[in-house]
Amino acid sequence: MSKIRLRAIKKRKDNGRRKMREIIDVNLKARKVDFIECQTELLAVGLFSDAKRLDKVNEQLNKKLAGAIERVIELGDFKGKAGSTTVIYSSGQIGAKRLILAGLGEKKKATLDTLRKAAANVANKAVGMKLGKVSLALHRAFGGRFGFAAMAGSIAEGTHFGCYRYDEFVTADENSRPDLVEVELIDNNTAQVRDLRKGILPGDIIGKAQSYARTLSNRPANVINPDKLADAAKELAKKSENLSCTVLDEKQIAAKGMGGVLAVGSGSQNKPRFIVLKYSPSGKAAGRLPTVGLVGKAITFDSGGISIKPAAKMDQMKLDKSGGIAVLGAVKATAELGLPINVYGIIPAAENMPSGTSYRPGDIITTFSGKTVEVQNTDAEGRMILCDGLSYAVEQNCDVIIDIATLTGACMVALGKYMAGLMGNDNKLLKQLQRAADDSGEKVWPMPSSEEYAEEMKSKIADLKNIGSRWGGACTAAAFLRQFAKDKKWAHLDIAGMEVFEKSTEFAMQGASGFGVRLLTSYLMNVAKKKA
Ligand code: BES
Ligand code: MN
Ligand code: ZN
């Protein structure tokens, strides 16, 4: 027996049971230090592809490194292309052991998201190299262009994003990586360091919330079912005195008349839950502040039910809870930011499975609103649970209701995997969400949900049916939902395709993306700032 095997056995004996890997801890700070002197494992600087010459900081570093930066550029090994990186090793000429050049693309096209992605890219490389300490001077290339606090926020979000790994079930040691990465944003100017520090705070909270969402989404359906998801929500609520959590079990769901959630959940042994998180800020002014209802689809596994899906890639349907989890993440961030706004996180959760107790094609379901729905396809289950969630938000008298869901393959066909579909009944709200998309780098594109589409969702034998014709599936789905928002300001985000990276990229590990956490939180921050 090899030594390694012996050690493995010993470890198991010591622990009784192997401890699951936690997600990589990211510790973010800002520090005033000279760029040349900065002692670190890895120093990151940014370069634009169309820059005529090196900026001041890069020029200084280049000089100390005997022209090494110029050389990689001259050799054509680094062109400043967005997403590209090159590592240069120093031998004591500068404080950093390694310098990483991060490409920022064309200067005039650069946005805060360029910075967010560059930070993610560098963080991803640092984790790949198993480095525990990284210093970022990425913002320097931009001068003061977006403001130092805003730049720090984006960098902080990007750092969390790039450091993220999902490996809690990987027991093999080859997959070892740092448990903690210390990241500092550095500048040699006191005022700018102060601004960077200010900006890190919200970025750190939002970045953490997104990683939290990614882990919950990545967990498979045998680990997370509706009840386990409810436990996660309760856990969140325990951590903040401004959060409360109510969970309805299957009996309470039935008693309330939430026929949609009940029907979708009826085929599984894992019973449905209706999860409600309520956030109210401290102080007595809460009653006068606006109330936003976020409604997220949480199908912990979507087999299609009796209208069963094909086998290929069905495993990915563990991610069909991502809308609900984006809501969890946004509520977590809202509470930690202490935003002056009331928020309901409404998460209908069910597992869509085929069995003798499943709902069937042909069934007529009475939803929480009182409207009846003829089920024509059990795989169109998202709208069946969301309609009850929307009605609940209406009942709570939310001023604004936003739902988010991996709702239709049709949305992916229409928009690909770069933008989420955005529908709604209020132009101002749509504009606000468009703006939140610009701020957060989580993109959306407007799509219709008007009367023509709603017409297709009428049933001959009930008020509605749950599928439309072959065409415009994302729009007919939205038109179905629209009717449950009544006269409230409502928007719908179809995030099908956005919830997952099918392959690892230079800035993200494959798997759940946490899409929506940044978008929703940006929207809420803007509302709280009243400039939305
Ligand atoms: N969860 C799926 C939509 C989906 C598909 C999300 C692929 C992510 C990737 C949804 O419940 C579904 O099955 N929708 C059907 C609707 C149809 C039956 C009207 C679809 O898109 O095919
Ligand atoms: Mn489905
Ligand atoms: Zn689904």
Explain what you see.
The strands form 4 sheets. Strands 7, 8, 9, 10, 11, 14, 15, 16 and 18 form a 9-stranded mixed β-sheet that branches. The chain has a 6-stranded mixed β-sheet with strand order 1-6-5-2-4-3, with helices on both faces. The protein has 532 residues and is an alpha/beta fold. The protein has 16 helices and 20 strands. Mean pLDDT is 95; it is low at 1-16. Bound molecules: ligand BES, manganese (II) ion and zinc ion (ZN). Residues 302, 304, 379, 381 line the site of manganese (II) ion.
Shape: elongated
By DSSP (H or I, 4+ residues per run), the number of helices equals: 16
- Please tally the β strands and state the result: 20
**How many separate structural domains?**
2
Q: What small molecules does the structure contain?
A: ligand BES, manganese (II) ion, zinc ion
Q: Poorly predicted ranges (pLDDT <50, ≥5 residues)? A: 1-16
Q: Decide which structural class fits the backbone.
A: alpha/beta
What keywords describe this structure?
532 residues, alpha/beta, Leucine Aminopeptidase, subunit E, domain 1, Aminopeptidase, 20 strands, 37% helix, elongated, binds ligand BES, binds manganese (II) ion, binds zinc ion
Describe the structure in brief:
By secondary structure, the chain is of the alpha/beta class. It has helices at residues 3-15, 56-64, 68-74, 112-128, 148-163, 190-218, 226-238, 250-256, 259-265, 322-337, 382-395, 409-415, 427-440, 451-456, 473-482, 517-529, and strands spanning 25-32, 42-47, 85-89, 98-103, 133-136, 180-187, 243-248, 273-279, 291-296, 298-302, 342-352, 364-366, 372-374, 400-405, 420-424, 444-446, 464-465, 489-494, 500-501, 511-512.
